[in-house]
């Protein structure tokens, strides 16, 4: 297992976490989460954070490592992920990165190094009051090149990019790479559009039963602003609007399903650019491939 790494990616609701647990059981592995919302404490139900029961005894890393009041950067994720992977390997186990945040996965697998720029809290507070659309227009004016590659609806990423430009007085620097010295196998969970749409609808109903609305209400009670909660996107944005009476319950559910489906499409556009990913629809085949990879 020395210097080997398994990566499992795919769209939301596709079953990545379940597959990661199956593979980990078979190859003596541990899972390293690559999810930009599950790093935050308190974002459990709506983010789809795996439960202790679902872990089935497999150790999971990089869950609940940040306060939801903070901005968790891809630079911080990469540092934590690399340290965790090295620790897992030193203990004679197989590290398995699993998640749908493509930039997190790429930061580790391709060794993307993003320049460190200290946070400007006053600027952030000012920018947090601005809508994502206006933030994107602002970024296009001051750094057109970065605007072409950024997720236009993600206020956290937009704020960070604007912060870098305004702090350094220069465009966001070119990203350099430090490739990992590991053999890497990348697996993608393949689902048909119809299957994925049904899974998203089913998952939304289940999360509502588990208390997704109450969870979002607790985040608000803990001191987070509605703006901050909405910045977590997807389910949190729609539920926050429902709690502010900006959406009816039916409108909230429809908004969640619509946005989750759109996000799944964006995820697939990102992952399909990577020719190293081997797309698998049969979990048994994925487990067999992982076993072969770890023993050859």
How many helical elements? Answer: 14
Helix fraction bin = 40-55%
What is the string of SSEs from the N terminus onward? EHEHEHEHEHHHHEEHHHHHEH
Any idea what the CATH superfamily of the domain at 193-264 is called?
Answer: Crystal structure of tRNA isopentenylpyrophosphate transferase (bh2366) domain
Query: What is the count of β-strands?
Result: 8
Radius of gyration: 19 Å
How are the strands of the largest sheet arranged? Answer: 3-2-4-1-7-8
Low-confidence stretches: none
CATH architecture of the domain at 193-264: Orthogonal Bundle
Write a structural description.
This protein is 54% helix and 11% strand. It has 296 residues and is of the alpha/beta class. Among the domains are: 115-174, Histone, subunit A; 193-264, Crystal structure of tRNA isopentenylpyrophosphate transferase (bh2366) domain (Helix Hairpins), CATH 1.10.287. The protein has helices spanning 16-27, 52-55, 74-90, 102-109, 121-127, 132-142, 144-149, 155-168, 193-210, 212-221, 226-231, 234-243, 249-272, 283-295, and strands at residues 4-9, 29-33, 60-61, 94-98, 112-113, 176-177, 183-189, 277-280. It has 14 helices and 8 strands. The protein starts with a strand and ends with a helix. It is globular. The mean pLDDT is 93. Helix 1 (16-27) runs parallel beside helix 14, helix 3 (74-90) packs across helix 4 (102-109) and helix 12 packs antiparallel against helix 13 (249-272). Strands 3-2-4-1-7-8 form a 6-stranded parallel sheet, with helices on both faces. Strands 5-6 form a two-stranded antiparallel sheet. Strand 2 (29-33), helix 2 (52-55) and strand 3 (60-61) form a beta-alpha-beta unit.
